[in-house]
Design goal:
The chain is α/β, with parallel strands linked by helices. The protein is built from ten helices and four strands.
């Protein structure tokens, strides 16, 4: 389905988060700066992607995030630099695919202006999920997601747009699950990033592990409203990805480093206390925490799937 169908599919009782990789312009000649070889079809494709993204970002259930605004703004400035560089290098030849198929250079600037509009919309939307109202609670969730992503090597691509390494994937993941825990709206992420797919496969089973049942009840309750991932393929077709969390996968199945178990346990303990207040262990059925021993021969590399 296309982006407009995505909007129709999700009602007003959803919160749609849009990753930069979820729009078609974030790939191809505009990503590489190959303007001298660009074709009219590629220009048309980029403009259509921008218009669709604009409809998503102006619909009632679009939820802005500061990290997403930073990504859009960063890519806009990157494209601006590439266009200026091409003007300097090629002069009047910019935007001519061949001598017999000249391409209106104004169309390239139309794409640039359209991307600038998206960046403006994203910036004005800001923090629609009001994550800033509970900065410590959300930040703690973001930090444990970032920790697991780094520790398990879940990220294989870079979308930093020339800036410092991006944490947008971790922010989007944390924001979506935070919304699932503390909102009655269905969180939806539109993306084309395989790193986010990796995170959705691996991290929720870890955070839901039975070792943390004293403190992760709210997260377990969020599974009935769990976020959905709408993935953009290279052919610019969008589909909802399904993740089977029915079979509980223990933390010990992912790492041979006991410190990971300890770190996640400490996170859930502090997160639960900040959300609900202290919990008395005897009310839940066990009195203390014991990490599950992990075989030494097990390695992260042998368990974490490739992107």
């Amino acid at each position: 389905m296309d982006l407009e169908r995505v909007i129709e599919h999700y009602t007003k009782n959803s919160s749609i988060l849009l990753d930069l990789s979820g729009i078609t312009i974030q790939s191809g000649p505009f990503e590489r700066g190959d303007f001298e070889d660009i074709s009219p079809k590629e220009i048309k494709h980029a403009l259509a992607g921008i218009e669709s993204a604009k409809k998503v970002m102006t619909c009632d259930n679009y939820a802005g995030l500061e990290c997403a605004a930073f990504e859009f703004e960063g890519f806009y400035h990157k494209l601006q630099r590439l266009v200026n560089q091409m003007e300097s290098n090629f002069g009047n030849t910019i935007g001519c695919a061949t001598e017999t198929q000249p391409l209106n250079r104004e169309k390239i600037y139309e794409v640039l202006d359209g991307l600038g509009e998206l960046a403006d919309i994203a910036t004005k939307k800001g923090d629609d999920l009001n994550l800033g109202q509970t900065p410590l609670r959300f930040h703690s969730l973001f930090k444990v997601v970032q920790y697991l992503s780094n520790e398990l090597g879940l990220k294989h691509s870079s979308n930093s747009n020339g800036h410092s390494p991006s944490n947008t994937d971790e922010n989007l993941f944390a924001a979506a699950w935070y919304c699932a825990m503390f909102s009655d709206k269905k969180p939806v992420i539109i993306t084309g990033d395989n790193d986010l797919v990796n995170m959705f496969k691996i991290i929720p089973p870890i955070l839901a592990d039975k070792q943390f049942r004293l403190y992760n009840q709210r997260f377990l309750g969020a599974f009935s409203n769990r976020p959905e991932l709408v993935f953009r393929s290279l052919q610019s077709d969008y589909k909802v990805l399904g993740f089977d969390y029915s079979d509980e996968i223990p933390v010990s199945g992912f790492t041979n480093v006991p410190s990971v178990v300890k770190r996640v346990y400490e996170f859930w303990k502090s997160f639960q206390i900040s959300s609900e207040g202290p919990v008395e262990p005897r009310l839940v059925g066990f009195k203390h925490y014991k990490p599950i021993p992990v075989p030494h021969e097990q390695s992260v590399a042998s368990i974490v799937p490739d992107a």
